[in-house]
């Protein structure tokens, strides 16, 4: 354990001063409340980063609920756990003994979420003389949209940004932000950290199929897919209403992949508005998503709140043209390469017009799908993202060795 400095903080241990050679493999402890559930984006992102890091020769220790080597227990929080469970999330119980086992000999600890588990991990890592980095993966607006009346309370999101900074990020110098949009939000809310904008990337499992396998005839059914939590901020209701007013609605097959608190309501609205047998809404296992996406034509993303949106990346990588809601609180609009891939958030009629246009122009749809797949592979592969993530971790280790103060409160 490191020596205490004059302010009562632990300094780097001898091991940490010798660790993490600039070009050598790192041992990274990744702290995520929920790891074993592939139904939420944070878990998926952590797992695919871990797989790529291991493929490159780094050592990764996953710490959280469902982790194979360092599993955490569930932390039940009145009301909060019930709300989180509807979004495929569980809170992990802080466990000092678990943290000490997982962090022993680690070069760096990376924390994903600002709840009690992540805060406990940061404290124990500090006591052990190990540097800590953090990712900002939970957008406060996602919380307020899921918390009923809190959504309409003036200043609620700003309060959560301050609370998250106090809980975790105020004591971490290097922070991973998945998009420029959320990095801008952090700066506007007073985060003075070194912010590294790095996409979550997408798994190489998502690839396009050959053009010859895709029908390009006008008049063929247009297969539309959307993917994400079935919650208010994802706004799938606008997609259902848009399909209902499309000129070609009887030639559209709609699949909405996900689960969440609005499952029943969305199914009821689809049954009311759409022709029978033309739609499906429900959970799809992540392992089945590559094949499902390759069998579709358009990926529609109506969400009004998104830190990045892994699902859009997966759709584009699979050769689908995206049609994305343009919203100040969503970073997903950054992926659009043409105005026909954007529509104003919550505007069902403009979305319907976009869908009709892509239906009526199948050759353009195929050409743009190929362009999106190539652009996504070049820009957002998990391999290129992990390169930048490792650079962030090495920079954090160097700063820690130099004794740079991590306090930003």
Number of helices, counting only DSSP H or I runs of 4 residues or more: 15
Instruction: Give start-end ranges of low-pLDDT stretches.
Output: 1-10, 13-21
Strand order of the largest sheet: 3-2-1-4-5-6-7
Structural class: alpha/beta
Give the averaged pLDDT, no decimals: 89
Helix content: 25-40%
Subunit organisation of the chains? single chain
Q: How many beta-strand runs?
A: 13
The largest sheet is: 7 strands, parallel
Judging from the principal axes of the Cα atoms, what is the shape?
globular
Please tell me how large the radius of gyration is: 22 Å
**How far apart lie the N and C ends?**
25 Å
Summarize the helix and strand pattern as letters: HEHEEHHEHEHHEHEEHEHEHEHEEHHH
Task: Describe the structure in your own words.
By secondary structure, the chain is α/β, with parallel strands linked by helices. Helix content is 39%, strand content 15%. The chain contains 15 helices and 13 strands. β11 (298-301), α12 (310-317) and β12 (321-326) form a beta-alpha-beta unit. The longest helix has 20 residues, at 382-401. It starts with 13 loop residues before the first helix and ends in an 8-residue tail after the last helix.
Spell out the blueprint of helices and strands.
Layout: H1 14-18, E1 27-34, H2 41-55, E2 59-65, E3 70-71, H3 80-85, H4 96-103, E4 108-111, H5 116-127, E5 132-135, H6 140-146, H7 156-167, E6 174-177, H8 180-188, E7 194-197, E8 222-227, H9 236-245, E9 252-257, H10 263-273, E10 279-282, H11 289-294, E11 298-301, H12 310-317, E12 321-326, E13 342-344, H13 348-360, H14 362-379, H15 382-401
Parallel strand pairs: 1-2, 1-4, 2-3, 4-5, 5-6, 6-7, 8-9, 8-11, 9-10, 11-12, 12-13
